[in-house]
Amino acid sequence: MTKLYSRREMLRRTGRRSGGGHKSILRSSYGTRSFAELVQPAIGFCREGVPIDAFFARSIRGASGNFRKDPGSVKLWLVDGEPHKES
Predict the structure, then answer these.
(1) What's the whole-model pTM score?
(2) I want to staple 5 with a disulfide (CB 3.0 to 4.6 A). Which of 9, 11, 22, 62 is the partner?
């Protein structure tokens, strides 16, 4: 479990008064990748879309009746009024 530190302890450990102390402690303890590297897969999904497997496609199809009742859900989950297909 990750230990939480008080502001005073963060200052003692990092030498910084505000913000970012927790990041340097976590980075030194748990990894060296930059934030940009860590979020790159999420950015790709945002730009390209999320792959839909057979299980997810069946779930969307099963809920499509409820989705049709809400315009926002229609935009998100249905393509030309039909559920997304497996990709």
Answers:
(1) 0.50
(2) 9
